[in-house]
């Protein structure tokens, strides 16, 4: 992830599965969100998912100094809306994040987030309709800025976004 003021270059070759020519212009991102058709690293976890029409929300972040302004909510609203439309036609969205008790653990939170968050990622996603389906110990190797590797749990969450009961 880029530092607060580090510029990156536009290299995206597609947007909404439509080909585009990257501008190569430099900019400072406010965050990132990815909608992926696969999560190869999670395939061995026996998440009991149906085949097809499943997409993963990955690498989602909003820069800490601008959190709480509705940008994350707007990004999730848009990615969920895009997922159900052509050409993706998603029925299930999946994501993973740090388990809420780990995220609130003072020593870990100070070392990795700069403090205990007001709301955990897991709670935020739960309020958006995602439900916990599995917890995995040390799924990610979490290393802080000082090189300490933390013992953490990752939660896998699911949201059914299309079908007879989805509105």
TrEMBL record:
SUPFAM superfamilies found in the cross-reference section: Acyl-CoA N-acyltransferases (Nat)
Residues in N-acetyltransferase domain copies: 1-162
Gene3D superfamilies attached to this UniProt entry: 3.40.630.30
GO MF, one example: acyltransferase activity, transferring groups other than amino-acyl groups
InterPro entries: Acyl_CoA_acyltransferase, GNAT_dom
The protein's name in its UniProt record: N-acetyltransferase domain-containing protein
């Amino acid at each position: 992830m880029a530092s607060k003021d580090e510029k990156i270059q536009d290299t995206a070759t597609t947007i909404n599965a439509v080909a585009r020519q990257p501008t190569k212009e430099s900019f400072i991102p406010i965050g990132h969100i990815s909608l992926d058709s696969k999560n190869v690293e999670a395939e061995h976890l026996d998440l009991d998912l149906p085949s097809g029409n499943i997409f993963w929300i990955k690498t989602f972040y909003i820069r800490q100094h601008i959190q709480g302004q509705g940008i994350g909510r707007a990004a999730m609203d848009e990615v969920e809306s895009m997922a159900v439309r052509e050409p993706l036609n998603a029925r299930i969205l999946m994501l993973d994040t740090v388990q809420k008790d780990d995220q609130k653990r003072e020593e870990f939170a100070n070392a990795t987030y700069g403090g205990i968050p007001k709301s955990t990622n897991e709670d935020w996603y739960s309020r958006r309709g995602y439900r916990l389906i599995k917890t995995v110990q040390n799924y990610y190797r979490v290393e802080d800025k000082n090189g300490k590797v933390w013992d953490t749990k990752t939660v896998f969450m699911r949201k059914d976004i299309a079908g007879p009961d989805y509105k």
